[in-house]
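Thread: Newbie trying to understand structure tokens

Hi all, I'm a second-year student working on a class project, and my supervisor (Dr. K.) asked me to get a predicted structure for one chain before our next meeting. I've only ever worked with sequences, so writing a 3D structure as a token string is new to me. If someone could post the tokens and maybe explain what I'm looking at, I'd be very grateful. Here's the chain:
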Amino acid sequence: VRTSMRNQWPCTVETMQAQGQIVRVHLRGDAALELSVAARITRESAELLGLRPGAPVQALCKATAVRVLPLREAPAQPASNLWPGRAARISRGDLGDEVAAELAAGVQMVGFAAPGSGLRTGARVALAVDETAVVLALAG
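---
Reply by user tm_fold:
Sure, no problem. This is what the structure looks like when written as tokens:
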């Protein structure tokens, strides 16, 4: 499947926690990816995908769903889906500055900082994605 989602990572389901009709899925990046991701999906979606611990999936999210902040502005108590990295490329725009970053986990990610963020290539950044913005797809 080709998609417009710029951020895609092969992962494995670690754990699942049902919370009413919502399931919180904890994922771990495959192979050399030291990435931990959390997603919130409906119980029906989890059932339709046949999710279970150990299942291979693809985690995806749109670049527009990724918030990029200077690392010094990241919350002191990190939430799930908050990753440190370095800005590799920045494209300025009226609606926001597109930032391509290399995460400490060894993953490339694209997101947006506020317009006129002042971020520069090489700057230490934090990238954040809400758990509800993470889409899961079956791998293979």
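A couple of things are worth pointing out once you decode it. The longest strand covers residues 7-19. The chain has a mean pLDDT of 93. Feel free to ask follow-ups in this thread.
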